[in-house]
Amino acid sequence: MGAIVYRLRCVLRTRWISVIVVTAIVGLACAVVVTVAAGAHRTATAPDRWTSTAATSFDGLITQENGGRPRTIEVGALSAVEAASSFTFVFGGLIDPNGAEPLQALVFSGSPDPLAVRLVSGRDADPTNEHEFVATRSFVELAAADIGDSFDLVTLTQEQADTEGFSVSDPQGPRLTVELVGIIDGPVQLDDPTPVALVSPALLDRPDLGIALTMIGVDLRPDVDLAALRSELDTLPDSVGLRLEPGQQISDDVRRAVQVQARGLWLLAGATGLAAVAVLGQLITRQVRPTHAEQDRLAAVGFTRSQIVGVSA
């Protein structure tokens, strides 16, 4: 063993530069492989990690398809429901004070919870102040807006919405100035990146506001399932227009897309690892394997075959 240690000391003394270079190459290659593998794992677990850290969740999502005022309070009063919150699609548009036409963005009013988004900057809109709204990152980019900017909100009356929809040239609904107070973001933007503005639910108190449909997110009481909730919904007036589906913060389409990307990264990590083994194996072998001449000299000074192999190892 002492002979092997002595030999290694001699090699390190004469080849220390090449040893450092090879060690750095090995470290860099390992770092690349580990980084790609870590990225694959992080990508694969992203949906579950987002869901586990989300501030809000819901067991079911009710779509109020027949229009009319939001039935959130009515749904929340059912015995199967622990809590209910909603957002409503508004027939309206936001106009930059420096522009003339409404921005290509959807306008909702209500709570951000059923949208499965979180606040990433600023603050939530005051639910009692119809002059405040939050918006997605895509809206902020579209409007080149900052928190504190104001926009003109123009809307249709319910009669205009029912008869003409967005083709109305002279909106007669409520008009008011609204201020951007917060920015929201979430996986919903992966499903549909359309810019979204969410105005304070106080806007829905205006009786002449034209609205289309309402989405109601519900949390169920313990030991209650969606079938029980469906049964209770059927007891409400005009229950045919209340469509119920499981609550999903992240859709199946997004999950599938994330898993495909994760599998691609795992394949890349595997291919990178195999390439690193092949290339580094040759590099290290050539660096440490004694030449035939060196083996003859080591044998001449008393090295056994096992000791020569030990030096290489």
Structural class: alpha+beta
% residues in beta strands? 15-25%
Fraction of helical residues: 40-55%
Specify Rg, calculated over alpha carbons: 32 Å
Please outline the major beta sheet.
11 strands, mixed
So what's the overall shape? elongated
Count the beta strands: 11
Low-confidence stretches: none
Sketch the topology as an H/E string, one letter per element. HHEHEEEEEHEHEHEEHEHHH
Mean of all residue-level pLDDT scores: 84
* End-to-end gap: 13 Å
Query: How many helical elements?
Result: 10
Your description of this structure?
The protein is of the alpha+beta class and 313 residues long. The protein contains 10 helices and 11 strands. It has helices at residues 2-14, 16-53, 72-76, 137-143, 158-163, 188-191, 226-233, 252-288, 292-300, 305-312; strands at 60-64, 81-90, 92-95, 106-110, 118-122, 132-136, 150-155, 175-185, 196-199, 211-220, 242-246. Strands 1, 2, 3, 4, 5, 6, 7, 8, 9, 10 and 11 form an 11-stranded mixed β-sheet that branches. Helix 1 (2-14) crosses helix 10 (305-312) and helix 2 (16-53) runs antiparallel to helix 8.
